Amino acid sequence: MQPLINRYVPKTTKEIFGQDENIKKLKNFIVNFAKEKKNSALIYGTSGVGKTCSAYAIANELGLEVIEVNASDFRNAEQINQKIGNAIKQQSLFARGKIILVDEVDGLSGREDRGGIQALLKLIEDSPYPLILTSTNPFDNKFSSLRSKSSLIEFKQLDHLSIFKILKGICEHEKIKYQDDVLKALSRRSGGDARAAINDLQALAHEKKELAEESLEELSERNKTDNIMAALNKIFKTTDLKIAISAFDNVEEELNEQLLWIDENLPKEYTNPEELAKAYEMLSKADVFNRRIKRWQHYRFLVYINALITAGIASAKKEKYKALVGYKPTGRILKLWWANQKAAKKKDIAEKIAAKTHSSKKEILKSTMPYIPIMFKNKEMRNNIINQLELEPEEVEWLKGQVK
Question: Do 149 and 164 share a domain, yes or no?
Fold first, then answer.
């Protein structure tokens, strides 16, 4: 049985939901290619938002042939020149015009891509045909020259209603019984990925031709881990609060690291002083709540923090900044990591002392730990502490480092 994802590939742009403005931009680029200053369009966005299928649908409407190559298939200048160069030189079928689609240019980010990006830039410059490049995150520093030579088109993450319309159309065509509420719940679980939603629909309904509420219990929620860069991009580059507020939903970084990432990159993005001040006010309030959590263990404040650092910061600007910004980690994240490592060893030793003395770790940290490094100066006492507490080599090294 053919997968639904293959059977329902959009043939025209009318069949693609949620990307009307972006499709219009891409179509204009292709139609007016001869007048364009740039020979390539770089379309980017998370998976399943319609980047590749939009290129094919536009080509189909314009009667153009698509020659597709995947950047993950080649790793150096020679392979790129061979594959993409041949695609450019290749005679179009039936003498039609053509577009060259280079999918997943993120695949060029490995160390072994010797001269790959430079070779691609040269081919773009010399190509008599429009090149369309796709990427999930083109803001790596390696791609700066590629960005400058391309027209950038961002495909936004699909909202659940757009995905609901796609799934509803498939259900009706496939005669799959469904309830609106269940189909909407499935749409929300997709994380904005239409491809994943269609695959889930097939997994749940292909046997019984019915999507019931209990079916969703069989499907664990997709655990898509967003890149921290993509999360920042959602916050800084949107004025839609519904998009911004979910930015950190599936990001692995801890809250403290999220705050540091925002603090480091906020002034690079928000160049208007008034808007920057408003954004920092939101970040400052979030930091206050974070300290209250640490002091009082009131974890319900996490809801307020998330709202402040996502929708709050996004709402600080009147309109989206168009300048391209490469987000960078702060050196303080590394310092924070080292501090956490040191604190962890101190707590581990305190826990061992607490177990031996039947005391609380909190009390040991406060009243005993300050004196352990002093006792460690004496060789006999040092050996007794190591043996009695069964200290690990790393813990011994840490204590030696505390001796003054």
Answer: no
